[in-house]
């Protein structure tokens, strides 16, 4: 079975009644869950020498063997009823399972992943376009289809899928996200999970790999071009390196990271690994066709792009020729990239402090917000 790399760095007020609940089921108060250590299963999947560990793929789990007739009326879900830091998240054990639209599938979530946008949304930075409170957060997930809408054409019960559940992360995001036992998502936003990776690895991919892909597309990246990735060890950056090299045929890939993460950059295919704690990339003589800035150094990035080149900016100020975009979730993009995942040419990178168990969502968010994660922060298994 294919082994995959995981780098190791050892107001809209609304009451809880906004979640519809069956009349016959008493409402339970939101309650926090005591911290627990990462599961032995997650620990067993991590091995290897200093600076890296190996995650062995396992394509399915008995824990998600659910059919439509088994779907309960309520579920466990993490939620917040006010904006704030990670402490506003509480575990609610009686949230109604979301209804399934005609073009949607209901997925029994096996694993979910956190993204910086989840934190920004929870802190209230997108109030103008947000769904009503309380909110079940989470965009990325992997799991098993347990129910299909009447207009669903290509998916069926029992299919293992993964995807990013909102077409646009900031425009009308779903009130019922992926940090729950079940989530409803449009068929067009998900794809079949590659058989050679497990649910935890798959859950960490959608938003990051779609952002990496769309950024490269918008920059006009193609075979023979060079690229510098700022923040190459992060969730998006680690996939930009791999897509540029393995999918687009880059002539040269350079990337920045801190000292302990340089070997990760090289293992992912970077030709040049720049230690930003020791060297400033804008003082170096090299110029690049594209600079992919995932860390907010746009003013420096434009100094090292070739004339006629592009700078993809994910955060921070935008200086021409830099540009920013909001990624569009698209299951067809995932399907297109699946062969590269199946073959191992593109590898999911899961931060080795995880996967965090479902009981440790608050701790996982707190860790994500340190900015020190390598690859993706993943929650698995989801009960």
Automatic annotation (TrEMBL):
Gene source species: Hordeum vulgare subsp. vulgare (Domesticated barley)
Similarity annotation: Belongs to the zinc-containing alcohol dehydrogenase family. Quinone oxidoreductase subfamily.
InterPro entries reported in the protein's UniProt record: ADH-like_N (IPR013154), AOR-like (IPR044626), ER (IPR020843), GroES-like_sf (IPR011032), NAD(P)-bd_dom_sf (IPR036291), Pterin-binding_dom (IPR000489), Quin_OxRdtase/zeta-crystal_CS (IPR002364)
SUPFAM superfamilies from the UniProt entry: GroES-like, NAD(P)-binding Rossmann-fold domains
Domain Pterin-binding: 265-383
One GO molecular-function entry: oxidoreductase activity, acting on the CH-CH group of donors, NAD or NADP as acceptor
CDD domains tied to this protein: MDR_like_2
Keyword annotations: NAD, Oxidoreductase
Database matches in Pfam families: ADH_N (PF08240), ADH_zinc_N_2 (PF13602)
GO biological process: pteridine-containing compound metabolic process
Official protein name in the record: Pterin-binding domain-containing protein
């Amino acid at each position: 079975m294919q082994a995959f790399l995981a780098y190791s760095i050892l107001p809209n007020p609304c009451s809880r009644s906004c979640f519809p609940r069956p009349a016959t089921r008493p409402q339970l108060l939101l309650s926090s869950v005591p911290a627990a250590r990462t599961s032995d299963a997650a620990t067993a999947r991590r091995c290897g020498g200093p600076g890296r560990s190996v995650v062995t793929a396992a394509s399915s789990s008995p824990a998600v063997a659910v059919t439509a007739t088994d779907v309960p009326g309520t579920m466990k879900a993490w939620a917040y009823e006010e904006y704030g830091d990670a402490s506003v998240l509480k575990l609610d054990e009686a949230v109604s399972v979301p209804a399934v639209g005609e073009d949607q599938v209901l997925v029994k979530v096996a694993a979910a992943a956190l993204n910086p946008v989840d934190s920004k949304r929870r802190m209230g930075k997108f109030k103008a376009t947000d769904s009503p409170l309380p909110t079940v957060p989470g965009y990325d997930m992997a799991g098993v289809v347990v129910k299909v809408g009447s207009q669903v054409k290509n998916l069926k019960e029992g299919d293992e899928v993964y995807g990013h559940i909102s077409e646009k992360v900031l425009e009308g995001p779903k009130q019922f996200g992926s940090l729950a036992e079940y989530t409803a998502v449009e068929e067009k936003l998900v794809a079949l999970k590659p058989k050679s990776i497990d649910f935890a690895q798959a859950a960490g991919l959608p938003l990051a790999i779609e952002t990496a892909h769309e950024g490269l597309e918008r920059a006009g990246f193609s075979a023979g071009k060079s690229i510098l990735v700022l923040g190459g060890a992060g969730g998006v950056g680690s996939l930009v390196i791999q897509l540029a090299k393995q999918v687009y045929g880059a002539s040269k890939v350079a990337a920045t990271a801190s000292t302990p993460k340089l070997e990760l950059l090289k293992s992912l295919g970077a030709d040049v690994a720049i230690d930003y704690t020791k060297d400033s990339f804008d003082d170096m003589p090299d110029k690049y066709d594209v600079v992919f800035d995932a860390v907010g150094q746009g003013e420096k990035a434009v100094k090292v792009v070739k004339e006629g080149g592009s700078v993809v900016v994910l955060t921070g100020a935008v200086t021409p020729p830099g540009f920013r975009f909001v990624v569009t979730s698209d299951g067809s993009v995932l399907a297109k990239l699946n062969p590269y995942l199946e073959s191992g040419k593109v590898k999911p990178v899961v931060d080795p402090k995880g996967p965090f168990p479902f009981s440790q969502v608050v701790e996982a968010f707190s860790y994500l917000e340190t900015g020190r994660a390598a690859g993706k922060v993943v929650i698995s298994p989801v009960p």
